[in-house]
Specification:
With 72 residues, the protein is mainly α. 74% of the residues lie in helices and 0% in strands. Helix 1 crosses helix 2, helix 1 packs across helix 3 and helix 1 packs parallel to helix 4.
Length: 72
């Protein structure tokens, strides 16, 4: 596995866990401007990855909404 792919995977999961993104499509859009995106394109757009990122986004947003009264 290339270092660029690993970096994009790590960045995608980091973005998902941030709670700032609603799902995998928004993360894919954000990542398209990063070096290494072309090498990670298939990974980013696979159904398994989309499911994983959507789940991480949902968990993060739920956690933020439950712990931050101002976020509601």
């Amino acid at each position: 596995m290339s270092e660029e792919l690993k970096r994009i995977q790590q960045r995608a999961r980091e973005l998902a866990r941030s709670g700032k993104f609603i799902g995998s499509r928004a993360i894919a859009f954000e990542l398209q401007f990063e070096p290494g995106y072309a090498q990670a394109f298939r990974w980013i757009h696979s159904l398994a990855t989309q499911d994983e990122l959507d789940h991480l986004c949902s968990e993060a947003r739920t956690r933020i909404n439950c712990t931050d009264p101002a976020a509601a």
